[in-house]
Amino acid sequence: MANIYTEKVIEHYKSPKNRRTIKDADGVGEAGAPCGDFTTVFIKVKKKDGKEILSDVSFETVGCIAAVATASLTTEMALGKTLEEAEKLNKDKILKDLGGLPPIKMHCSALSTEALKNAIKNYREKAKNK
């Protein structure tokens, strides 16, 4: 494990940040991969100074070390950001901050950011229909 994953990946896998469900989430997004990895992201949004801010972000993942680590980092990076800032998080930013992933695991970085974007989309759809 230590030979193919960076120290930061292993750290996020062993002690994932924000791995939990938010029961009363404002938005929920999911993303899956052909290999069977599946991530769900939950968000809470608050309004501050006329902006919508992610006040809480969490995840649940069924998947490998890379899937858990990328979801953990994605939620950490999104917390406290505006919806627009969070939507700009992408797989390249996640990969860079983790110090890379093995080529066969690259899709995991897209999984978590896709689930986050889907949660934001879900939140906006709910808000529009209120």
What does this molecule look like?
- It contains 5 helices and 3 strands; from the N terminus they run H-E-E-E-H-H-H-H.
- The chain has 130 residues and is of the alpha+beta class.
- Strands 1-2-3 form a 3-stranded antiparallel sheet.
- Strand 1 and strand 2 form a beta hairpin.
- Helix 1 packs across helix 2.
- The termini are far apart.
Mean pLDDT, to the nearest integer, reads 93
Percent range of helical residues:
40-55%
Major sheet summary line: 3 strands, antiparallel
- Domain count: the total is 1
Q: Which fold name is given in CATH as the topology?
A: Sufe protein. Chain: A
Count the E strands. Answer: 3
Number of helices: 5
Low-confidence stretches: none
Q: Give the C-level CATH assignment.
A: Alpha Beta
Distance between the termini: 48 Å
3D shape: globular
Helix-strand string: HEEEHHHH
Helix/strand class: alpha+beta
β-sheet strand percentage: 15-25%
CATH architecture: Alpha-Beta Complex
Return Rg in Å.
14 Å
- The strands making up the biggest β-sheet line up spatially as 1-2-3
